[in-house]
Amino acid sequence: MIFACDLDQTLIYSRNSMGPIEEDELVPVETYDGDYRSFMTRTANLYLQRLSQNILFVPTTTRIYEQYNRIFGLTEAYSIPSRYAIVSNGGKVLVDGKPDADWEHRVRQAVLAKCAPHLEVKAIFDRLVSEDWVLKDRYCDDLFYSVIVRRDLLPAELMEELESRLRDLGWSSSLQGRKIYLVPDHVSKGSAVRYVKELSGSSFVFAAGDSLLDESMLELADEAMAPNHGELYRKYGVHKHIGFTENSGIRASDEILARLTNRMEVRKAL
């Protein structure tokens, strides 16, 4: 079994995103500039330690490789092994910590052949936004854009308008916290999870994620969950395939991992 799980605001949380929780219930999992930046609950951490001994835990994130490597707590040294990982929103698959060159070549060829050039997409975005709203932008791994914005200034209709403009160009957009992502359709978590499934010979995928960029892998999964604080919940509320948590914030990860643990117990009993 594969457990393909988004990281930020699904499994791990910053202090700004976690919601109310006692300090002694937190386990730090990421450092940056000498500070702890991301955390799990002790409950979720214990669940994942046990689960990762029996299934393939596949961290699946929009973070680029360097950002992913800041997360020290999701490693074999901390009793959470992961032979496979997916970074750059599916643009890279890591096998034993190293990028899979065949997958990366396949992704880049598909983007070049089937998606509009990134500068054309960025020009459309720039025409829709004001300089006052945008704090910083970055073209990540020569694949997609990450734009830090002042979310309080964004017009309510911006994301809908952006999505309609990008659809015919083979790109999509997602608003997560104070970041807008502009991503080619052929850079997807779903495609990367399917590739890992083939590599590993696994037959069942349990997936979890909070944003529209996670939707492709949740649709691929045999069972899927999403926190009720995320972009997916705001869009759907109820979904025929994706189960939403009752808890929000960092407690949502406890609920997701409890469900997966129950699923494992049921499968063992069959």
From TrEMBL:
<keyword id="KW-0378">Hydrolase</keyword>
<protein>
    <submittedName>
        <fullName>HAD hydrolase family protein</fullName>
    </submittedName>
</protein>
<dbReference type="InterPro" id="IPR036412">
    <property type="entry name" value="HAD-like_sf"/>
</dbReference>
<dbReference type="GO" id="GO:0016787">
    <property type="term" value="F:hydrolase activity"/>
</dbReference>
<dbReference type="Pfam" id="PF08282">
    <property type="entry name" value="Hydrolase_3"/>
</dbReference>
<dbReference type="InterPro" id="IPR023214">
    <property type="entry name" value="HAD_sf"/>
</dbReference>
<dbReference type="InterPro" id="IPR024197">
    <property type="entry name" value="TPP-like"/>
</dbReference>
